[in-house]
Write a structure and sequence with these properties.
Length: 382
């Protein structure tokens, strides 16, 4: 009788342990995104992309034989809320890595949390300050604002433009890109003759653009910014009949920008963007073509809305993370961090990623494509 009781107890204990092991057979990944608020046009496709890809990965066996469990929060673009969620992801959800920080502001707010807790973090925001200086556990997928400046100035230089006006958003991204552009513009023998700014909530930039228009020496205008501001600038630009080339940042590289600005007003606008916006125009042998076509087909098939550059940032972040786990053979945060830093030749929607201890972005300037709006659609600049 005693022997039967021991055996029964042992079996029950073994079953309980087996069930507990099965229940814990998951890899916990976190995300804090701006799915609502002023940056929702960035965060919404990022959230949809992560959910879609996690479902796809789990349907195909997961990672390292385990399913991914995604803990995702909407910070609404508020840095304080993002920091609260970052802490929750670590303390309550016990995630091993985090993707997010839709904006520069939210990213910068949560970086200290992940660095202190030694959790790998892949940001989806643009400012160079996110990865310069390099921090051990912080990475990102979008090109930096400094790279965007360089790509734009290269194009201006090729067109013989030497004198420009700038009108920049005063938000975190706009202010950062403005500063980066001013730091390197002299390297391209280009002079800034007007330097105007606007606040994120401004609904009319006519006064600033009128100031720029009044300077007859200006040959082109650059608008570092994201959100609705650049669309308003573009509409006001057309209303004032400013007959000069207008450049925007990669922060508005989406079909949504054309819709907000209006196809007629946006005609001729140039900006540095990714292969994702011109998937069907890529060469057949372009290594990015199969990647961007597959993501575009999956996303648009699932959501019946156009794919965006910003969702592509999330796509690449998850691919980098999963690739690192598979190469490390582990979901341990330290092992994953080390493997992310060793990412080499990974083809994503934004470019081919090769990171190092000194480079937590892993993209070159060649990953940018110079795009122009023609007949209401994005085209590649010849």
């Amino acid at each position: 009788m005693t022997m039967n009781l021991i055996t029964t107890t042992a079996l029950a204990t073994g079953m309980a342990l087996a069930l507990a092991g099965a229940a814990s057979a998951e890899i916990r990944i976190g995300a804090t995104l701006s799915e609502t608020g002023g940056a929702s046009f960035l965060g919404d496709p990022q959230g949809k992309t992560l959910k879609m890809l996690v479902d796809e990965i789990n349907a195909n066996g997961g990672v390292l034989g385990e399913e991914i469990r995604l803990f995702m929060y909407d910070d609404g673009g508020d840095p304080n809320r993002a920091r609260t969620f970052a802490t929750r992801l670590i303390e309550d959800d016990e995630v091993v890595a985090v993707i997010g920080g839709t904006t520069t502001g939210t990213s910068m707010a949560i970086i200290p949390v992940f660095e202190e807790e030694e959790i790998p973090f892949i940001s989806l925001a643009g400012a160079i300050e996110i990865i310069d200086p390099v921090r051990p556990y912080t990475f990102k997928t979008p090109h930096t604002d400094r790279m965007a400046c360089a790509k734009i100035f290269e194009d201006m230089q090729a067109r013989g433009i030497t004198r420009i006006g700038m009108i920049s958003g005063s938000d975190g991204f706009g202010a950062s890109m403005r500063n980066q552009c001013l730091q390197i513009v002299g390297d391209y023998a280009i002079e800034v003759l007007a330097d105007e700014t606007y606040a994120p909530a401004d609904a009319d930039m006519t006064p600033q653009l009128t100031n720029i228009k009044s300077n007859a020496q200006i040959e082109a205008v650059l608008n570092p910014g994201f959100g609705q501001g650049p669309a308003i600038v573009t509409r006001n630009y057309a209303q004032l009949a400013i007959d000069l080339p207008l450049y925007q940042s990669h922060g508005v590289a989406s079909d949504g920008f054309i819709e907000l600005a209006g196809a007629q007003a946006a005609e001729g606008v140039r900006l540095p963007g990714t292969a994702l916006l011109v998937a069907d125009l890529l060469a057949e042998d372009d290594p990015q073509r199969p990647v961007v076509e597959a993501y575009k087909a999956a996303y648009e098939g699932a959501h019946a809305t156009p794919v965006s550059t910003f969702g592509g940032y999330a796509h690449d972040a998850l691919r980098i993370l999963v690739d690192a786990m598979e190469r490390a053979g582990s979901s341990d945060p330290q092992a994953v961090r080390d493997a992310i830093e060793e990412t080499s030749g990974l083809v994503g929607t934004t470019g081919t990623v090769t990171m190092s201890a000194d480079d937590h972005l892993g993209l070159t300037l060649d990953a940018f494509r110079m795009l122009e709006v023609r007949d209401g659609a994005w085209t590649l600049v010849d």
